[in-house]
């Protein structure tokens, strides 16, 4: 299958999946207990006339399918509606909070990739006591949830030692990076352990391959054997795990942002869910679904590049 045909097919699949996801996202909020009208009234009693005015303003009395189609048409034009909580356009809210979330995820991903790959490499190559120590360390990391790591890091390095800010996202790129250092580490800790163990396992499997034995018999330096014949052949498995890592980062950022009061999309999603801010929750949920599918598409497109034995579409058919 050619690259172009595969990419077009996957984009069509993404569009269909997004359409189905949009219906689920829109409908799920209306199945939850409570209503936007009760939040807008802040618990106060209201006359039937006042309730009717609110329902007409926000089209809450329209049939479900009519509301969905109206919302979908607005989304296709880049309009996610108006926030019930903040009384402003949802698009503006997302634009203000998206940079902090993207920088946090990017920093956490960098930490995961660098440390996870290095630990996995060392564990597979060195073996012995070093490998055992790395296994114990990564097991502890995998067993530590992100919100627990956030509380521990915040209490030690921000509150007690005062080395890092305890909350907020800062202003400007460098200040934001400084404020997001602890949240990024908390977000990355669990995934570092997972990537290290996957890398170690993949490299140990590759070390047992016949091509490695042949390379060594030909006198190829060990460092070159590890780099070209072991690590490179492990990248397919590592890349597949990388897609899962990015998806997990997008989900776990909600907990970490709330713990550090980052003020990104994750914290906005939590607050909007609590206050029944339907338009905001629907917009963020749809964006997260779209990011998930984009990550999976990129993994599928990159997989044949890091592992020539894989052809476009073969992983999907084998699954």
TrEMBL record:
<dbReference type="InterPro" id="IPR045621">
    <property type="entry name" value="BPD_transp_1_N"/>
</dbReference>
<comment type="similarity">
    <text>Belongs to the binding-protein-dependent transport system permease family.</text>
</comment>
<dbReference type="Pfam" id="PF00528">
    <property type="entry name" value="BPD_transp_1"/>
</dbReference>
<keyword id="KW-0472">Membrane</keyword>
<keyword id="KW-0813">Transport</keyword>
<dbReference type="InterPro" id="IPR000515">
    <property type="entry name" value="MetI-like"/>
</dbReference>
<keyword id="KW-1003">Cell membrane</keyword>
<feature type="transmembrane region" description="Helical">
    <location>
        <begin position="100"/>
        <end position="122"/>
    </location>
</feature>
<feature type="transmembrane region" description="Helical">
    <location>
        <begin position="235"/>
        <end position="260"/>
    </location>
</feature>
<dbReference type="Pfam" id="PF19300">
    <property type="entry name" value="BPD_transp_1_N"/>
</dbReference>
<feature type="transmembrane region" description="Helical">
    <location>
        <begin position="177"/>
        <end position="196"/>
    </location>
</feature>
<dbReference type="InterPro" id="IPR035906">
    <property type="entry name" value="MetI-like_sf"/>
</dbReference>
<protein>
    <submittedName>
        <fullName>ABC transporter permease</fullName>
    </submittedName>
</protein>
<feature type="domain" description="ABC transmembrane type-1">
    <location>
        <begin position="98"/>
        <end position="299"/>
    </location>
</feature>
<feature type="transmembrane region" description="Helical">
    <location>
        <begin position="12"/>
        <end position="32"/>
    </location>
</feature>
<feature type="transmembrane region" description="Helical">
    <location>
        <begin position="134"/>
        <end position="157"/>
    </location>
</feature>
<keyword id="KW-0812">Transmembrane</keyword>
<feature type="transmembrane region" description="Helical">
    <location>
        <begin position="280"/>
        <end position="299"/>
    </location>
</feature>
<keyword id="KW-1133">Transmembrane helix</keyword>
